[in-house]
Design brief:
By secondary structure, the protein is of the alpha/beta class. It is 37% helix and 20% strand. The strands form six sheets. A seven-stranded mixed beta sheet has the order 16-17-18-14-13-19-20, sandwiched between helices. It has a six-stranded mixed beta sheet with strand order 10-9-8-11-12-21, with helices on both faces. β17 (382-385), α13 and β18 (402-408) form a beta-alpha-beta unit. α3 (80-96) crosses α7 and α5 (113-134) packs parallel to α6 (170-184). The chain binds 1,4-dihydronicotinamide adenine dinucleotide and magnesium ion (MG). Residues 164-166, 168, 191, 193-194, 223-225, 228-229, 232, 243-245, 248, 251-252, 267-268, 300, 347, 350, 397, 399 line the site of 1,4-dihydronicotinamide adenine dinucleotide (NAI). 1,4-dihydronicotinamide adenine dinucleotide (NAI) is lined by residues 164-166, 168, 191, 193-194, 223-225, 228-229, 232, 243-245, 248, 251-252, 267-268, 300, 347, 350, 397, 399.
Length: 494
Amino acid sequence: MATATLDKKVSVPRPKIRRTECFIDGKWVAAQSGKTFSTVCPATEEKIADVAEGDAADIDLAVKAARKAFERGPWKTMSARQRGKLMYRLADLLEENLDELAALESLDNGKPVADARAADVPLTIQCLRYYAGFADKIHGSTIPIDGNFFCFTKKHPVGVVGQIIPWNFPMLMAAWKWGPALAAGCTVVMKPAEQTPLTCLRMAELAQEAGIPDGVLNVVPGFGPTAGGAIVAHRDVDKVAFTGEHLTAQIIMRNAAETLKRLTFELGGKSPNVIFDDADLDAAVKGAHFGLYFNQGQCCCAGSRVFVHESIHDEFVSRVASMNQSRVVGNPLDLSTEQGPQVDQAQFDKIMGLIESGIKSGAECVTGGKRVGDRGYFIEPTLFANVDDNMEIAQREIFGPVMSVLKFRDMDELIERANNTIFGLAAAVWTRDIGKAHKFAAEVKAGTVWVNCYDVFDAAAPFGGFKMSGQGRELGEDGLRPYLETKTVTIAMD
Ligand code: NAI
Ligand code: MG
């Protein structure tokens, strides 16, 4: 593992912090309580800014603003095409400010700025454009029912939606939620993750500049149980969309029972990535490495159980090990950095605990396993071989730069083992045999299956989980449905 120097030549400038308050009804306001919390730079552990700490009182104001904007005012009467136009304008403004947004994301989250420039911000823009195009293509159907009736359906926006997002892809998660909500004509109360509120607030500022009317998008930073909990419990929120941990989703589902809100969940995973002995090994090694270590391993779809055919196992392990040894870990604002710090102390501690669990359970720690430096939440790219299916590291979501390699012999055994998890978000297979690829894709219980590739995302392709990895889908046309209610109108013709 190489450590990036804090080379000034290749570091991007530290971005200016523009917005730290709640954004409610088109205004920037302090939390009603006057409280703030600090958002921290994970690379240095230094405070970046004090951010308004919203709670139930602020959520209530935001919901009232969102309700007013939904029931009255320009958003309700605006044509669908005009809604799409405003969304395109927001996407254009994000593009104009791409470098600033990427730097801000990197500063607040710790991800390499090169990744934010190449992935987070462009995918955010793509998502908003994709759903902007949908705004004027949402319609019902006419239905031939028995008797002399004219029966048709209409699609209505579901109403005021509460959106609670995590810290691993802060901007992108905001776009996955705003895109379908705005296209459908809903209004939004969003709570960004407490670790990474800054880019969402900046996006709200740009949304206003784009002309999205007051009250349509409201952003209330704050903590999960307080601000998040208030969204979930609020009587006037029609739907909650959540991305995060399955244990949090269970709490949300219980707390939403009282008001029977519509719920969609995009949760975690323990995704199997399978490499057969007939695969293009160069591509498989690179793909598996990327599929796990990208974004410091903080991906819901991380390929964290890598099943490798026994005949190529040792070679695979040694190639991944050598990639880990040359990986550039360091200052995320340095353009040459490949791996930054984990997002916070809690994630750092969880990952280090799981690494210890792997070692204690007898897995072979081939590379890494330790902290990097003594400042910031950096962890060495870690590789475990000889992992058994039932070890804690093969069952729990680690959400860090820790790969577990498991050996397999044949397809039947493999599918059962691949499905031996409470999760079902993603899966991948590497093989030159089209039959094997199809069989695996058919049998694996996962919402997304990649064949000879990993982490291929597109706003047009639905994404979401089987089993405890979620409910409903985001992206694509499927991602729009949870934001719409179907109204059936039947008219007697005689
Ligand atoms: P989390 O699920 O607690 O946080 C996600 C969001 O939910 C944040 O905005 C948080 O403030 C909010 N939240 C927390 N408790 C809430 C509650 N009671 N009511 C309403 N909202 C609430 O995840 P956390 O603690 O940040 O990470 C823990 C683990 O979750 C990670 O180690 C990882 O395994 C998993 N995770 C999975 C993600 C994914 O993309 N599927 C994203 C983030 C975390
Ligand atoms: Mg939490």
